[in-house]
Amino acid sequence: MKKVAFILLLILGGLNFINAQESNRNAGQNPQAIVANKARNEALKAQEKLGLSREQFAKWYQSAFKRISAIQPLREELKNTNDNTKVKGIREQIKENRIKFDQEVNTFLTDDQKSKWAAWKEERKNQQRQFSKDKKAKLVESEEEVLDFEE
């Protein structure tokens, strides 16, 4: 039992260290600079994946900046609430922002780029689903290990 407790303490300590590093990375930057950086990185990734022109890159950046600026406070609010009805409302607002972004982007993409964009979104969705499945599997595994150890 002592070994399990010790291992859990090590894991929690490691997670706290990682979280502190993440917080320090953005410390000192103003929120608009963080949003601008995220939008820029996203536009660069889209340029690489979709072959955006300079004009399309600028439009993508503007649309991403608007979306990220709108979603960021919602995500913070989501982290700080436990009210299920409020959580559903916030998630719906985030979804609306993503739909609006998708509509804006589709106005300036070519047909070929639209099909690449749809495939990219599907790829990301599948990666997220796989990540969730893996995360759930690890939780079940760790719970089974704890139960086996206690018996």
Short key terms for the protein model shown above:
single chain, 151 residues, mainly alpha, 5 helices, 90% helix
Short description:
The protein contains 5 helices and no strands.
Low-confidence stretches: none
Distance between the termini: 11 Å
Outline: globular
Rounded Rg:
20 Å
What is the β-strand count? Answer: 0
Structure description:
- The chain has a domain at 30-109.
- It has helices spanning 2-26, 31-50, 54-79, 84-108, 111-150.
- The termini are close together.
- The radius of gyration is 20 Å and the shape is globular.
- Helix 2 crosses helix 3 and helix 3 (54-79) runs antiparallel to helix 4 (84-108).
- It is an all-alpha fold and 151 residues long.
Write the layout of secondary structure elements.
Elements lengths: L1 H25 L4 H20 L3 H26 L4 H25 L2 H40 L1
Helix pairs in contact: 2-3, 3-4
